[in-house]
Design goal:
With 302 residues, the protein is α+β, with helices and mostly antiparallel strands. It has 2 domains: 171 residues, Jelly Rolls (Sandwich), CATH 2.60.120; 51 residues, no CATH class. Helices cover 25% and strands 26% of the residues. The strands form 4 sheets. The chain has a 5-stranded mixed β-sheet, with no helix packed on it. Strands 5-16-7-12-11 form a 5-stranded antiparallel β-sheet, with no helix packed on it. It is elongated. The two termini are 38 Å apart. 28% of the residues are buried. This is Maltose operon protein MalM.
């Protein structure tokens, strides 16, 4: 949840809406993959002329655009030494990426890690191969995520982009803004997570806040619908047995999670135990919660 100081998000969205209508500049839009089979493409509604045209062409031309060929995972550390843009509302460290436009739809999961109750709140501006702005994924669309077994607390969004055919590359500019730096992200208090994990009443206590900063750590996971150039654009993969029941977690994996939960609780690391419980149940474990509760009760009685 994004907390705005002095201005509600509703007001900001209304302002952006009317500005887009009144602007005399028209932007081409990029289609992105829809969430359902019946919808083939959708037009990204989040393009802001104000942001897109506040960056001089000379600033874009001097950036080094790091190529990423899917499938790929990449970590970007944004520091005071990183490239910076301070134009219009854009402020602080940036990341610049080049992605292939000839491999069909791209799925990009962008995470910004929360560290020491601080986080870089990203915006993503997409350009075509001629560096014309085509889509904007604004910061308010990134949401807070609790830690997982392989990931920490973060803000995150998955982008699904289908580049217009005939292009070689598209370009992503990741940045934060002066407005973003005036807001914060609400986290989940560990005591609340603990209560939820053991089935107790959730305490009425304030959640911690992560302040937004102009530096941070980003992780990106990029995949495409094609792995080679000769895959047909309209090829669809169909499950030959759509009624089959998904496999449950293996006994060995379930035991591994149970032992890890026990160890975490013995060491007093309840947050880690809760994270393991969550991941185990996502994989289909039927005994992880019972293990967790038994260990908690045992620890409380000892």
């Amino acid at each position: 949840m994004i907390v705005v100081k002095g201005e509600t998000m509703k007001t900001k969205l209304i302002t952006l809406f009317y500005y887009s209508i009144l602007s005399c500049i028209s932007l081409p839009l990029v289609a992105y993959a829809a969430g359902t089979v019946s919808e083939k493409t959708m037009i990204n509604p989040e393009v802001s002329n104000n942001v897109a045209y506040s960056i001089p062409a000379s600033v874009l031309q001097k950036q080094v655009w790091k190529p990423m060929k899917p499938p790929a995972m990449h970590t970007i550390v944004l520091s005071r030494a990183s490239p910076q843009i301070n134009e219009g509302n854009i402020q602080g460290a940036i990341a610049t990426l080049a992605l292939p436009a000839s491999q069909g739809a791209l799925k990009i999961t962008l995470s910004s890690l929360i560290k020491d109750k601080q986080v870089y709140l990203p915006n993503v501006l997409v350009f075509d191969e001629k560096f014309q702005p085509v889509a904007l994924y604004a910061s308010h669309s990134f949401s807070y995520q609790q830690p997982g077994i392989f990931s920490g607390e973060r803000v995150e969004r998955t982008l699904k982009i289908t580049p217009v055919s005939g292009q070689k590359n598209i370009y992503l500019l990741i940045y934060t803004t002066h407005a973003d730096l005036q807001t914060s992200t609400k986290m989940v208090d560990p005591a609340k997570a603990y209560a939820q994990g053991v089935g107790n009443a959730v305490p009425n206590i304030p959640d911690p806040i992560a302040l937004h900063t102009d530096t941070g750590i980003l992780t990106l996971k990029v995949t495409s619908e094609r792995t080679t150039e000769n895959v047909l654009a309209d090829h669809t993969f169909v499950d030959p047995n759509p009624n089959r029941v998904p496999k449950s977690i293996s006994g060995e994996t379930e035991q591994h999670f149970n032992e890890a939960i026990k160890k975490a609780i013995k060491n007093g690391d309840i947050n880690k135990a809760l994270t393991l419980l969550d991941e185990a149940e996502r994989l289909g474990s039927s005994s992880a919660r019972e293990t967790f509760i038994k260990m908690i009760k045992s620890k409380e009685s000892s």
